Give the backbone structure.
Amino acid sequence: MSSPVVRVEIPFHLRTLAQVNGELRLDVPPPVTLRRVVDVLEERYPVLRGTIRDHDTQQRRAFLRFFACQEDISHQSPDDPLPDAVAEGREPLLIVGAIAGG
């Protein structure tokens, strides 16, 4: 049995750093969780280690947000299963740079 292909969209500056264009497709072993997706992403693109989550604490970087099926999942446990639509590749997981200012 093969792993589900999860679609991931990352911010422009991270795409530039990883030297990729457009949406990423990652084989993520079940259960498909945010932690597993980021683990696979960092394994496939080592240059991204530490850019999405802190090296030591593994906490999400303050100016990044995670969205699944148009819902902000940034404050959910990284070990919660992602929605089926994301886990099955029908919808992308979005990693979005937060906008700050005033």
Remarks:
- The first strand starts at residue 5 and ends at 9.
- Residues 24 and 92 are 9 Å apart (CA to CA).
- The chain has one domain: 5-92.
- The mean pLDDT is 91.
